[in-house]
Amino acid sequence: MGQRIAGSASAYLRQHAHQPVDWWPYSDEAFAEAAAREVPVFLSIGYAACHWCHVMARESFDDPGIAAYLNEHFVPIKIDREEHPAVDQIYMAATQTLTGAGGWPMSVFTLPDGRTIHAGTYFPPAPRPGTPSFGQVLEAVNDAWVNRRPQLVEQAAALADHLGSVAAGQARMFSRSLPLPGSSDEPRLAPVVEAAVDRLAALEDPAGGFAPAPKFPPSAVLDFLLRAGLGSGPAAGQATELVARTLGTMARGALADHVGGGFARYCVDAGWKIPHFEKMLYDNAQLLGVYARAAVQLPEAKDRELSRRASAGIGAWLEREMLLPGGGFASSLDADTVMPDGTHREGATYTFSRTEAGALVPDRGNVFWALWEGRAAEEPGREEPQLTIALSRTPQPGEWAALDAAFAALGEARARRIQPGRDEKVVAGWNGLMVQSLAEASVLLDDPALLRLAGGAADYLWSTHWDAAAGSLYRVSYRDRANTEIAGVLEDYAGVALGFQALAVCGGEPAWIERANAVLESALEKFLPGGQPFDAPDDDPRVLASRAGARTAEALDDAVPAATSLLASALLNRAGLVQLAGEDPGAEAGARIESDLELVRRLVGFVPSIAERAPHAAGSALGVVARFAHSASAELAVAGGTPEERRAAMRLGILAGVSQWGEMPRSGAASSAYPAGPDGALRLYVCRGGVCHAPVGDLQSLDLMLAPGLAHTGQDD
């Protein structure tokens, strides 16, 4: 068995190729086989780094008896959710509707046309209180198929109709328009931001974050709070306090890998001390951007330093463990370490017993021992508990050197251990988000190495994932070759456009604007026909059948920000890139700016209705709204001044979300000089749509124009 998936490029599928289950890859042929045999389909959906996917594989799919029953009564299909996000999304919606919960592995039973008849997540090998065994589930579904098939078909149709109605409701979310920015409308937007901040304050968990355990990093919400903190009034201060607390809790806790850098997917406990050890590129892409901003923006020096170290740690981890030879970044590191005897141990690479740590850091006077506040990860049969590494408080400035020495010693020992597996799939959208964060962090942290990483990944995306002749973006690539059978979704197009735009601005290379615009224009054509957004192409009959033919775009965030919000951010950028793109700021450019801003208004127009009810679910859209109010279509040109002044202005430009800064080459009709002041003094020009305000000559005046709530930028440290 397994020959159909043994040669798959997907690491997740290859993990299951040895099993006695007769797995099919996701394909038309697999569903045709189910129709020909008149049996239901079993979909097993997961990803390579998923711990509980490994558990269910070992307990159930390796079992010859379970495999024989599956093969006889079902067509079993194995799906890498990262390759097929639209498939994962629709069956996750079905699973959550039927069970009230979701997650991976996802176990879904469908008709041969793809409509869902039963669903769940992990099923154990033996019954547990309230949870049947996987074998019992298989027998129950088969019994219903044999003896009550008409009822199953009726149930599947009802579920598809329900999901179709949900899709229609989601579509209506994009029927509103946000108020236009400007002096008369900004007061109408300010209450939206304030209401969201107030509600998030009410939702704040005393242990950190805005939800109970399991604790996921609320990256999009944190980005919004940082942007809200740049505004004026009490809400700005409240937002800054909220974001500082959560960022500090996460960076001190075991979600952060203090030894090797980067952040884990989530923590299973309320106190952020026991992580689920997988590391995902999309989490770290978002957190790099957030922590780099916080390293400049937060008012307390110790918080800025903790944030700087967290962001620098992500960059170091990324280059050391995730960078592929072609310049792209791998998608994940596994939660489990596969030991020499073939067993899986979650987090075994990362944890230490006190005896092990004592041998590596023997000086008990080292501040490491005073601050180490780890918790025991589950290690059945171990003589001594294996502990995670978390810090009990934010270190003082004088304590970091000793901590760094301790972490280095632990890191050397860790490097000699067996390492978790790496999924070398390159996902276009996730890499685009990482390019954006790397480019911006290179300016915020004054680290040119990060810009080089961003440029290498952007080159890879352009040369490997973008088909210029077809105007199409491919979602995944393996070993420098795109899988041309897997089309990009809106998340990919928007993420890549954002990455290219950031590289143009931070690296001073206007050619990336042309490339970003090519990707954006293709996205608008493919995913916004008639102005109605859709998340994915409409060429998958199972996805359409499962939603009664309806298409939709999800307005709310998941692990990755909502694709519509990413697109809105990219369009907002483009509206402010007239000068950098070398365009004449005339009637044609003005019409396009107006069109882009109108689309932004529609893509996030639902925010006022949700700001008070569920801001934690719409952080990315709220971030666009906060930026929309203050800097829609804004550009910043920096001329003259000392290098330190220029860097400070550039940092402020990133924080405020303006689309351009620095002295960029101009040509043609768009050419216009931004002269320095007398004797080369600093001159700062803020422009909107090619029309500039009177220049200012000091950073404080720029603060007032772009970020009136900025309490301290760290520029005098």
Report on the structure:
The protein starts with a helix and ends in an 11-residue tail after the last helix. The strands form seven sheets. A five-stranded mixed β-sheet has the order 1-3-2-4-5, sandwiched between helices. Helix content is 49%, strand content 9%. Among the domains are: 3-171, Glutaredoxin, CATH 3.40.30.10; 253-315 and 333-423, no CATH class; 637-706. The protein has 717 residues and is α+β, with helices and mostly antiparallel strands.
Summarize the model shown.
By secondary structure, the protein is of the alpha+beta class. The chain is built from 27 helices and 20 strands. Among the domains are: 3-171, Glutaredoxin (3-Layer(aba) Sandwich), CATH 3.40.30.10; 253-315 and 333-423, no CATH class; 637-706.
Indicate the overall shape. Answer: globular
Number of strands: 20
Percent range for β-strand residues: 5-15%
The CATH C-level class name of one domain: Alpha Beta
Distance between the termini: 63 Å
Strand order of the largest sheet: 1-3-2-4-5
Main sheet characteristics = 5 strands, mixed
- Portion of residues in helices? 40-55%
What would CATH call the homologous superfamily of one domain?
Glutaredoxin
Structural class: alpha+beta
Radius of gyration (Å): 26 Å
Tally of helical runs: 27
CATH A-level architecture of one domain? 3-Layer(aba) Sandwich
Low-pLDDT ranges: 664-671, 711-717
- Please name the CATH topology of one domain: Glutaredoxin
The residue-averaged pLDDT reads: 91
Please name the defining characteristics of this protein.
single chain; disordered C terminus; alpha+beta; 27 helices; 5-stranded mixed beta sheet; 3-stranded antiparallel beta sheet; 717 residues; Glutaredoxin; globular; 49% helix
